[in-house]
Specification:
alpha/beta; Rossmann fold; 7-stranded mixed sheet; 13 helices; globular; binds S-adenosylmethionine
Length: 285
């Protein structure tokens, strides 16, 4: 996908979720225009910025070395455990009432880290492991649901932004790592991984995201987690992008990395691998 068509796709997504005509902050962030984001924010700090915008603004403030503590207090808190089922149900209801999604489609209303969290919690997993932190926004939103969460990011700027968010919000149960997902997954304790849902979401995805360690490490990640954590629930995100183009593997290569005895299913564009435990995919019988 070219740069222009990626932008148009992003515009469509943003407009759909926010109702706004101009995807300014999101687009500026992907273009790495942190100074412009900061000056727009400082020109009108008390505006009713959306929660998503606040996350990007915080990341840009961190990137430009500015204080983030007061902004962090305006960001929506993590989903409370008692509210979680209602959040999942509402997202699924919105998704199902929308036009029929295609095969392996990106959901419009379901947040995929929330969905991965729901799958893990249904299977009784106590921890959450993510590869590809980005701004840390999605991990932050589910941080009250798990005992411990770990994440790795290849981009030093995004790593710094996520740390700024977790520090400013006093989030103590998230461990962040800077580096390549393969080294990260090899170093985690196996018993911790087996008691986790592992959300594989590390790949270059245009703009500020990193391709320092290649475009898409997913096959390597799968081999590592299947060998090291046979009891984990593994959720592989963004399967719609596995087309064999732009350095990504194709679907056959991804599926070919799985043992043929492994129980697996697709939901939206996520591949869900179930270990010893039976995972129940929320919203589907
Ligand atoms: C799709 S984004 C992650 C989104 C995030 N998980 C969320 O739910 O908001 C992919 C991220 O993976 C990072 N990345 C790419 N290759 C990586 C690698 N080999 N190791 C670690 N992170 C990587 C990119 O910099 C980017 O921030």
């Amino acid at each position: 996908m070219g740069r222009l068509s990626r932008k148009l796709r992003n515009y469509g997504w943003y407009r759909h979720l926010t109702g706004r005509q101009e995807p300014e902050i999101y687009t500026l962030f992907f273009d790495g225009a942190h100074e412009r984001i900061v000056s727009r924010f400082l020109a009108d700090p008390d505006r009713d910025w959306s929660n998503v915008d606040l996350h990007f603004i915080l990341a840009s403030l961190a990137e430009t070395g500015q204080d983030v503590s007061s902004l962090a207090r305006r960001i929506a808190p993590p989903i409370a455990p008692g509210d979680f089922q209602a959040v999942v149900d509402a997202q699924l209801a919105a998704e199902m009432s929308d036009e029929q999604p295609g095969i392996l489609s990106q959901p419009r209303f379901v947040h995929k880290s929330v969905y991965a969290a729901a799958i893990g919690l249904k299977a009784g997993k106590r921890h959450f492991i993510e590869t590809g932190t980005f701004t840390g926004q999605s991990l932050y939103s589910i941080s009250a649901l798990f005992g411990h969460l770990s994440t790795v990011e290849a981009s030093p700027d995004l790593y710094k932004a996520a740390n700024a968010l977790f520090e400013a919000t006093n989030t103590k149960n998230i461990t962040t790592r800077l580096g390549d997902t393969r080294e990260f997954l090899k170093a985690l304790p196996a018993d911790y991984m087996n008691d986790a849902v592992i959300f594989l979401d590390a790949h270059f995805s245009s703009g500020v995201t990193s391709r320092l360690y290649g475009e898409c490490p997913q096959i390597d990640e799968l081999k590592i987690v299947i060998e090291r954590a046979p009891g984990a629930i593994v959720v592989v995100d963004d399967m719609r992008t596995m087309t064999g183009k732009n350095g990504y593997p194709d679907l056959y290569q991804v599926l070919g990395a799985l043992p043929n005895t492994m129980r697996a299913q697709f939901s939206f564009d996520q591949l869900i691998l179930m270990g010893k435990d039976r995972a129940v995919v929320p919203g589907f019988p």
